[in-house]
Fold:
Amino acid sequence: MTIARSLITTSLKSGDYFSDLILRVIVGKPAIYIVLGFVLSISANISCTHTVSTPKPKGYFRIDFPETSYIPFSLPELPCSFHVAPSVTIELPPVETSGSWINLSYPALNAKIYCSYQQISPADLAILDKECRELVSRNAAMADSILEHLYENQHLNVYGTLFRIKGETVSPVQFMLTDSSNHFFRGALYFEFKPNVDSLAPVTQYMTENIMELIQSFHWK
Structure:
């Protein structure tokens, strides 16, 4: 895990046809015609193979994913900790910048999980929940559907929602976590290129598993 402070034809050959070959022989007068009628209808189908080209299915580059393993992650600036993959690069805001946010960067996959934290009061929860859902809807404008998965761990006082956006979107997974009274943590996966659902499916699955591990290992300090 690396920590860095930064801002973020059909070729058909016909046979040769020989027909009505006439040989005229003239011997004095009158003429004597010897007609040799050779009717040779040779339909030679030599090299007459009809090759049909079948379009090949579209292929995608193979992606080798890092071995699935996780390590604990925690920062003094954040009142929470969770697991991340060892290959993740942690991007932090500059020291002089206010606000609590971090990016979990996967350079080999051109993907990032943008995370932010806010200290709240119970009255703020409904507003932040609404804002989070509005952001999900915005990213799902061209998508097919949005699936919601509720998460609850009473023992650790962690409650949240995982949003999976199906279809064309640069942000197929988003989530929010809270203790319902003092803390609110939000994350959104973004790909840094134009999305293609079919080619991105393995990457999205891998990233979803990473996010699920983050959620299930999440706890407040």
